[in-house]
Specification:
There is one protein chain. The chain is α+β, with helices and mostly antiparallel strands and about 190 residues long. It has one helix spanning about 5-35; strands at about 40-50, 60-70, 75-80, 80-85, 95, 100-105, 110-120, 125-140, 145-155, 155-165, 170-185. The radius of gyration is 27 Å and the shape is elongated. About 15% of the residues are buried.
Length: about 190
């Protein structure tokens, strides 16, 4: 064999080895990308669900335009969710709505984002409406928290503040800072 023939064989051999390594690396990257995309275990449109506590009382009612549940993380994502919250006494007192929501069953927390509105069901409640951009509600303790600006409307008053801590069972609410308000008696 001449040097030219050996050079050609060496060149094609090297090209084959480099091609083979590139293909192995590409297939590894594809496998990583496929594993990185988690698909929902089930989806639902125009969802309506009712959850009961251990005593058989209604704990919450949820409706949403769209829902996706991921069993591996036990997280459910909602589009346009509406939650009816039933504190200890079993009567619906609050309706929570938002553009997006997420329920984490492991922590029993609901996070609502974008145009969050909490309305009192009873028109006799002193606090009628609360709005913010994000809130997290622990369904076990019925405590809601937010770090966003919060706007509250009630009978004869309007209040705004930064941050919120609300106990829905005892109906106590605290704005954390930058609180401003107006009162207009009837």
């Amino acid at each position: 064999m001449s040097r030219v023939t050996l050079g050609i064989i060496a060149f094609f051999g090297l090209a084959f080895v480099l091609y083979w390594q590139a293909q192995i690396k590409r297939s590894e990257m594809d496998a990583v990308q496929i594993r990185g995309i988690e698909r929902p275990d089930f989806v639902a449109d125009n969802l309506r669900t009712t959850e009961f506590n251990q005593l058989g009382f209604v704990e919450s009612r949820v409706s949403a335009e769209h829902m996706e549940h991921y069993a591996s993380s036990d997280i459910t994502h909602f589009t346009k969710p509406i939650y009816l919250i039933f504190p200890e006494n079993g009567k619906a007192q609050w309706q929570l709505s938002a553009d997006r929501g997420q329920l984490n069953k492991n922590t029993s927390k609901v996070t609502l984002e974008n145009n969050v509105i909490i309305d009192a069901i009873d028109i006799e409640e002193p606090l009628q409406s609360l709005s913010t951009q994000a809130i997290t509600v622990d369904l076990t303790t019925m405590i809601g928290t937010s770090q966003e600006m919060v706007y509250i409307k009630g009978k004869g008053f309007i209040i705004q503040g930064l941050g919120l801590h609300a106990d829905l069972n005892s109906q106590k609410l605290s704005l954390l800072s930058q609180v401003e308000g107006t009162y207009e008696p009837h």
